[in-house]
Specification:
By secondary structure, the protein is mostly helical. It is 81% helix and 0% strand.
Length: 286
């Protein structure tokens, strides 16, 4: 019999180029879909700003009452270096408080899920703590921790804590009991069950709480800067209000909004990254 001759194997360089082309095409398609999905929101925002500009110009409303969008843009450009300086201060407080609050929230959620005593002792207190207005306790934190970075970080951590702990508890309890029993049959330890099954299964709930807490973190940092601060976007908002610089106040609010959106998008990016890794990770090899 003659030899069977197969088709020649593709060149590695050709395969690499095709893979890059497919990846590039997929990224372009996803980017186009994202742009198209945000067209309605951008159109509504544009109409709102246009109406705002027309109303202020037509009625000749004073800038210290309601500045026009174009005036706010001019002030933002004029004070851009100062705004970035205050933004860095606020961002530092947000990231520190966000990290501390969420780490404590995950640890507390694990204790609550694994101990009925901890749940009955602490869960009602956690819920009750959220009924206290953070603006009311901000001066108290100023007395306890001084006027530095600490009181702002503490307030930010507190507002981040609740949504993450509640969602993580819900996610850990939503794990399939049959899957847990199956892992116990192969002699998996509690730590292995948690790392390989429970926490990956709870990731959608965890990131849902994370996205809420990152938005609240911005609010918490701003509230913390309203009392006893000399820098930060919250301080700048209060200073602008007291000096009737409404245009500067709106510029600071604009930066706060952009900062909040950027941090939220970063949380969404991490959600997609870690959710993909969790879904592609093997369960075996315990």
């Amino acid at each position: 019999m003659g030899k069977l001759v197969g088709a020649p194997a593709p060149e590695p360089a050709t395969t690499l180029r095709e893979g890059r082309r497919e990846t590039g095409g997929r990224l372009l398609a996803e980017g186009a879909r994202a742009v198209l999905a945000n067209v309605p929101a951008a159109a509504c925002l544009g109409l709102l700003l246009a109406a705002w500009q027309v109303i202020v110009t037509t009625l000749k409303i004073s800038d210290f009452i309601l500045p026009a969008p174009l005036e706010i843009l001019k002030v933002t450009v004029r004070f851009f270096p100062q705004l970035m300086k205050h933004t860095w201060t606020t961002t530092s407080e947000i990231l520190l408080g966000f990290a501390i609050g969420n780490v404590v929230a995950v640890i507390m959620a694990v204790f609550i899920v694994n101990s009925r005593f901890v749940e009955r002792a602490l869960y009602p207190l956690i819920i009750a703590s959220q009924t206290i207005p953070k603006v009311a306790v901000a001066p108290l934190f100023l007395i306890w921790f001084g006027s530095g970075l600490t009181p702002k970080v503490v307030i930010t951590a507190i507002v981040c804590f609740f949504p993450t702990v509640v969602n993580t508890v819900q996610g850990l309890r939503a794990t399939d009991e049959h899957a847990i029993d199956l892992l116990r049959l192969v002699a998996a330890s509690r730590r292995q069950i948690f790392v390989k099954l429970q926490f990956p299964s709870a990731l959608p709930y965890f990131f849902a709480g994370l996205k809420i807490s990152i938005a609240l973190a911005v609010i918490g940092a701003i509230i913390g800067e309203w009392v006893g601060a000399n820098s930060g976007l919250g301080y700048l908002i209060m200073y602008s209000t007291q000096t009737l610089r409404t245009d500067l106040m709106f510029a600071a609010l604009l930066v706060v909004s952009v900062l909040g959106v950027v941090l939220y998008l970063v949380a969404v990016l991490f959600e997609r990254l870690f959710s993909w890794r969790a879904s592609s990770a093997p369960i075996g090899g315990l």
